[in-house]
Amino acid sequence: TGLMVREDHFQEAINTDGHLVLDIVLHREEDKHEVFSFLEQYRILILGSYRNRIRISVSARLVLTYNLAGNTYIQAIYEYIPPVLHNDVARHIIGIEAEGTDRVVVSETGLGEIIGVADTGIDLDHPDLRSHIIGAVAWGRKDTNDTSDPHGHGTHVTGSIVGDGTASGGKIKGMAPGAKVFFQSLMDDAGSLANFDLKLQELFKEAYEQGARIHNNSWGSAAEARYTIDSTIVDEFIYDHPEMLIVISAGNEGMCNTDQDGEKGYVGFGSVGSPATTKNGLTVGASRSKRTTGGYASATYGKIWPDRFTDPPTSIESISGDADSIAAFSSRGRCDDFRMKPDIVAPETDIPSAKSSLAPLSHFHGGYASYNNAYAFMGGTSMSAPIVSGAAAITREYYRSKRGYPTPSAALIKATLLNGTRKLNGMSAIYKSNMIPNPNQGYGMLDLSMTIPNEQNVFHLEFRDSLQDASISLNITGQEYALRFRTQQVTWIRACLAYTDFPVRSVQNNLDLLMDYEPTRDKWSGNIGINGNDPFVSRKEDSTNNMEIIRIDTAQPGLYTVKVFARNLPKGQQGFAIVITTGDMNVSFE
User: Fold this and answer.
1) pTM for this model (two decimals)
2) Which residues of 481-491 are buried (b: 16+ CB within 10 A; e: fewer)?
């Protein structure tokens, strides 16, 4: 055990009253009373507790004299980093509507899906939202059960998911206007986020019991890519509830000229927040929208954030306009255990969405006055996460309604979304790595036109999901699951593997995605090249991530075999989901 506060950040972690706020994690919950006695002996203030977690405030001057790390009941001690908010065009960019028109090409709207949203509050009377909220509960203002939204963040986020465009004649709509939302208000009476993170399990469980199978979280802590206790809790909940996809914004901590690995004028790495460092959740970074007017669109990063983006090229780039690039402030990976994050990116700069009637315009990036102040512009990974949550609802509806599969796993939804991504090629998206996944864009840009078959792009989608078919789970190291198919013409092929791993730091059960072509014995492996030219990596298969992709742009006709190989299973049986798509509609699977 040890005190997990970075030495170079020790002074920053100290409150103005000279105290540190720490989270203590116990080996066993039943030892909590022993630790309480120990803390009371030294008159250490207990701020709260939940299960095997205790939050304390302790004198920074005396913290080492208490020898907390030497207590045998304590597993680990973490610096508490308070969570903060991660502050019409998007539907075109991600492929729901045809470019340059209002024609809908993806017919799914999220109908029948319930999405949990945990945020500041909700304007229940907003015309775009009033028929979509099935319930709202107060976590921060419990005494008054106040779920209103004087901040505006929660209403804007919810509008990006289910807004139906009533106030704009259908012009400004969310991604899944057929879906419903169960809302959990986190803001306290002081206008800040409540101490909800002590009970993250209960937050997710409450939404799950209300029928939510997707949960949006546009908040997080600036944990500098560390895998924290909150990340563990997200992984644990999904491990115990494999149908629940938890979507988390990556954070807005991207900046130039940091101590991270970056050149002058370029955004550095290692800034993704917590719990965005989760393995089993879906972490969303931010691309730029194509908008050139409205909000901050025409301004440069150096003008709006002169302390963070001081040098060209980033400082002179427009905040929006280039949809092939990453937002400069979007947090980058990798994680501190070398896993790739974010997983996916979506548009977030200058996004118009529902504006709470109680929120001042100063909380936004500008108003959208054309529609009686019902909308406003806002940016940040807070805005990209709900776009992906809406896309996840659309994907779930596809499996239920068109494939007759009633309970798709979180792993299957992840695999499907990542399988359909589009690689961004702007310099900010391929900086230091001209492949995907990479630490700037993860597995690429959300693209629903390549995610599920649709009016504009008809293709074959094959999937396997161990949630309802345990026979395809792998049980021992060295075991493999094979899926063979034969194509009849030159075409493209994509495959994606995702699995819910054991909820502790780093990948535990290591599965590999492999493919071979029988006529020539050509072979491919998932995330090929991710290890680059690292001299310390003897093989090129990815042993770090629990998601892997293979893409062949020009595949010759013939027999292909996709394998999921159990490279190492120290935690025993491991289920998975795999998605394979191809442009050959005459493909035959064995």
Assistant:
1) 0.89
2) bebebebeeeb
